[in-house]
């Protein structure tokens, strides 16, 4: 009896596996880490006194459906080394017991996601040694589980100081020719906006500012706009700082006021950097063993309807996207695979 192999146990892979299992298909889900979750397991809900529509409430139910399904076999700590073409596919894998081949795979869904820019060694300047400069993911670790109790004392405990001001800087690791990432990551604006909401809710007097190139959608249902920033009393600057200076008193961002045509300076106690989405470090490997093409940015080129050879792609393996978009497109991948199986049976 054959089954479908899903590679990657993040939100995309688990969404596909859950949909396939619900349709009566047997699935083996292969995750190289020691637990399911992928990138999204590092993030938490940022609701304050109202929902911020981060869509993370959708995630737990998807992971639970995978764990509870009798049709899904989950293999963690399992790396895919190669693919052998036969009648179907043979996946050469390696886990704690050694190397072996899964030779009962009828179709493959590749859903291995992306890397955050902070996870890459390239391009990280020495300024990140300053405790007042944080990646958004570092701030996430501090906020997780403490949103309702976040106060000046807890902020000082985690940061080592109590900031009176914070600046959010977008487009780090994307919109960059130097980093070969000219695209928009589609997550930075909404993500930092939600963190800013948490700070504004808990610290009404804190000065908050945001630098950006342009505004993207802050989620599947919420549009981030100048009006929303103004409602939260967030100052916004439509540019990227040209220079950052550090002193014992504060961080100083030098930027060009495009309306006035002159250089200005903004002092802040805390700088929070958004993190762009980068291609996964294994994309070249997948391209080789599955005979896939890559885009100029290094992601895997989408496989369009009619091009399928038994291999399907899901999630951010093909390019940036937020959680809601990833879930929706992963469901679409599962439905397309199921449709193709029905057509194959009919023929």
Automatic annotation (TrEMBL):
InterPro entries: FAD/NAD-bd_sf (IPR036188), Metab_Enz_Cyan_OpOx_G3PDH (IPR051691). The keyword RNA-binding does not apply. Keywords: Oxidoreductase. The keyword Ribonucleoprotein does not apply. GO terms for molecular function: oxidoreductase activity. It comes from the Bacteria. It holds the Pfam family NAD_binding_8. SUPFAM superfamilies: FAD/NAD(P)-binding domain (SSF51905). PANTHER family: ANAEROBIC GLYCEROL-3-PHOSPHATE DEHYDROGENASE SUBUNIT B. This is Heterodisulfide reductase subunit A. The lineage of its organism: Bacteria, Bacillati, Bacillota, Clostridia, Halanaerobiales.
